[in-house]
Write a structure and sequence with these properties.
Blueprint lengths: L1 H10 L11 H7 L14 H11 L2 H11 L29 E5 L7 H6 L4 E3 H11 L4 E4 L6 H15 L10 E4 L3 H15 L6 E4 L5 H10 L4 E4 L1 H10 L12 E5 L1 H5 L1 H13 L9 E6 L4 H8 L7 E4 L14 E5 L5 H15 L5 E5 L3 H11 L10 E4 L5 H13 L3 E5 L14 E5 L5 H8 L10 E6 L10 H4 L4 E2 L16 H14 L5 H16 L2 H4 L3 H15 L9 E3 H6 L9 E3 L8
Parallel strand pairs: 3-8, 3-9, 4-6, 4-7, 5-6, 7-8, 10-15, 10-16, 11-13, 11-14, 12-13, 14-15, 17-18
Antiparallel strand pairs: 1-2
Helix pairs in contact: 1-19, 6-7, 7-8, 10-12, 14-19, 15-20, 20-22
Bound molecules: adenosine-5'-triphosphate.
The site of adenosine-5'-triphosphate has 19 residues, from strand 2 and helix 7.
Family: Belongs to the DEAD box helicase family.
Function: RNA helicase.
Protein name: ATP-dependent RNA helicase
């Protein structure tokens, strides 16, 4: 079966990309001047030129480090002609870094020792004085521009100066919407705290609650990083847990707009009820995010003192994605989402001298499993290592996948939105979003997993015709997403292109692996499809009947379901989805619950 796949790839001319291109050689390949026929300012060529002009020394050295990480290629690409494109998706963008040095900042020697960067990023430079002065802050800055250090550093500095801190109490609470992000913040806190007498710990779902309660009560950390659900659990169910917060001086809402939206609101309200009255213990509130809508601004006010400051490092006319990240869209039917993803991954590998580090975002956890199972069945060497991460995996498996992908020089991480915000995976060159993103904000956060800390990257969103209403959203229209063309553009060779032959070729490869994906995964992906698109009927312009018809076509044509009957779906689930009476579902009555 797999031999078909091999033959598809071996039909192309075998290509050897010069794997030993040194960073210096590569930079010579980059255009030094903007060509007269170059398109918009978004072209990678112009970014590369700007980079060559303005790289501060700290960034130049990081650039060299990342460029030297490229591995020799091991694949035969779908269309080898694209290989002549000089790899520039690692071009850097310095617009988010300031000329302020940490060495000159009014901060302790202990903190200076713990910081590995020389220059402050914009958001760090523009917030540090206000934060050190104890103001409540609502801060908006682009993804990947160093917000974590922007809230950790001044908070730690303020705590270090407080002479009346109660020992054995938590002084600073950082709230994070996801477990992975909480652990990542803790890592960054640990390196900042290396020379301070402070400690940090976390309280996140998926860990043993009893042993964590014990540990936190026995040795309370100075800084606790928590996900809201688990913190509420502790506060409500662990005796004396709320006493740990009696001297809380700083509270941080990372990804504030997500924490304040309807999904977390109830938990946040509960958490705040357990915190000491701000009139008795003066507490600083720091709210950070890359996306802050008007409504969120209004809600955020409730969490801050009336004289709070709103700081945005976005210029007034600036759209909220990195200008230097080329973004493209491809409109194809559902069965072509996986083949198109494969084709783009292979193309990116060629564009990056055989080494791609890409993330593929999908709307549901089950769709993640499906893509993962299919792509990992491709013949060895077709793709770099493939990883999956989503909420249905155990916490140790999530940590393992996130850590492995962080470390990986090349790889493909298939993910649900659990890694969409805040996660810092170094060197990601391509973000693919296949299927409808939840909203414009989530699109921005997912895209923000590339082009971090001044590096370059690209984004592609793959949608069906019905999902393409997303591209017509007012906010999304401003992002400058351009359609993927059928053939490579001479004007901008760094943009992805895809013709029908390439898509068919990738489709053939996918057809060979679909039978290897388990029926259970396909059935679950089908049910998740029904659930997810049921929530977007209006945008999709589907009736409930059309939803079911589309899901039934999806399971056979896109997922390769070959069962005699469609996957079953429990009666109670059908009721919850409001699909009762809609023809075309294979409804089963839920098995009775075992009596206690
Ligand atoms: N001053 C700096 N100079 C260079 N790199 C920096 C600087 N500050 C932070 N970084 C690095 O930039 C990367 C992104 O930082 P961070 O994760 O804090 O971004 P963020 O703004 O919180 O992103 P997101 O919006 O996705 O949450 C990290 O690898 C971090 O180490």
């Amino acid at each position: 079966m797999l031999s078909t796949t091999r033959s598809i790839f071996s039909r192309s001319t075998r290509l050897m990309i010069p794997s030993t291109t040194s960073p210096a050689t590569r930079s010579r390949h980059r255009p030094r001047k903007r060509p007269a026929n170059a398109g918009s300012a978004r072209t990678m060529a112009s970014t590369a030129t700007a980079t060559a002009r303005a790289a501060p020394p700290h960034l130049a050295s990081t650039q060299q480090a990342s460029a030297s990480n490229t591995q020799p290629p091991s694949l035969v690409p779908l269309h080898p002609q694209t290989a002549s494109i000089p790899p520039t998706s690692q071009a850097r963008d310095e617009t988010h870094f300031s000329a302020k040095r940490f060495a000159d900042a009014p901060i302790s020697a202990a903190s200076k020792k713990g910081i590995k960067h020389e220059f402050m990023s914009d958001v760090q430079a523009s917030t540090i004085d206000y934060a050190l002065a104890g103001h409540d802050l609502l801060v908006q800055a682009k993804t990947g521009t160093g917000k974590t250090l922007a809230f950790l550093l001044p908070s730690v500095e303020r705590l270090a100066k407080m002479t009346d801190l109660e020992s054995r109490k938590i002084s600073m609470l950082v709230l994070s919407p996801t477990r992975e992000l909480a652990l990542q913040i803790e890592e960054e806190a640990k390196s900042l705290l290396a020379n301070h007498p402070f400690t940090s710990n976390h309280a996140i779902g998926g860990t043993n609650m009893q042993s964590f309660s014990r540990r936190l009560l026995e040795t309370p950390p100075t800084i606790l990083i928590a996900t809201p659900g688990r913190l509420v659990d502790h506060l409500e169910n662990t005796p004396n847990f709320s006493h740990l917060f009696k001297d809380l001086r700083v509270i941080v809402y990372d990804e504030a707009d997500r924490l304040l939206d309807a999904g977390f609101r109830r938990e946040l309200d509960k958490i705040l009820k357990f915190m000491p009255d701000r009139k008795q213990v003066r507490r600083q509130a720091l709210l950070f995010s890359a996306t802050i809508s008007k409504e969120i601004k209004e809600i955020a006010k409730e969490s801050m003192m009336p004289n709070y400051k709103f700081i945005s490092t976005l210029r007034e006319d600036e759209v909220n994605t990195h200008e230097h990240v080329p973004q493209q869209s491809l409109i194809v039917p559902f069965p072509q989402h996986l083949p198109a993803t494969l084709a783009f991954l292979l193309q990116d590998r060629v564009k990056n001298s055989g080494s791609t580090k890409a993330m593929v975002f999908l709307p549901t956890a089950r769709a993640v499993s499906f893509f993962y199972e299919a792509l990992s069945q491709l013949p060895r060497g077709t793709l770099p290592p493939v990883y999956e991460i989503h909420s249905r995996k155990s916490q140790p498996a999530r940590v393992k996948a996130a850590d492995a992908f962080k470390e990986a020089k090349q790889g493909v991480l298939i993910s649900s939105d659990v890694t969409a915000r805040g996660m810092d995976f170094p060197g990601v060159t391509l973000i693919i979003q296949a299927g409808l993103p939840a909203n414009a904000e989530q699109y921005v956060h997912r895209l923000g997993r590339t082009a971090r800390a001044g590096a370059g990257g690209r984004g592609i969103v793959i949608l069906t015709e019905n999902e393409s209403f997303f591209l017509r959203d007012k906010a999304v229209r401003e992002f400058g997403i351009t359609p993927v063309a059928a053939s490579p553009s001479a004007e901008n060779p760094h943009m992805a292109s895809l013709d029908s032959a390439q898509l068919a070729e990738a489709g053939e490869a996918i057809q060979t692996v679909l039978p290897l994906v388990s029926n259970e995964t396909k059935a679950q992906t089908y049910r998740a499809f029904l659930g997810f698109y049921n929530g977007s009927l209006k945008g999709m312009k589907w009736t409930r009947e059309e939803l079911v018809r589309s899901a039934n076509a999806y399971v056979t044509e896109a997922l390769g379901w070959t069962g005699e009957q469609l996957p079953d779906i429990e009666k109670k689930t059908v009721g919850k989805m409001n699909l009762k009476g809609v023809p075309g579902l294979n409804i089963v009555v839920s098995p009775p619950r075992p009596r206690p």
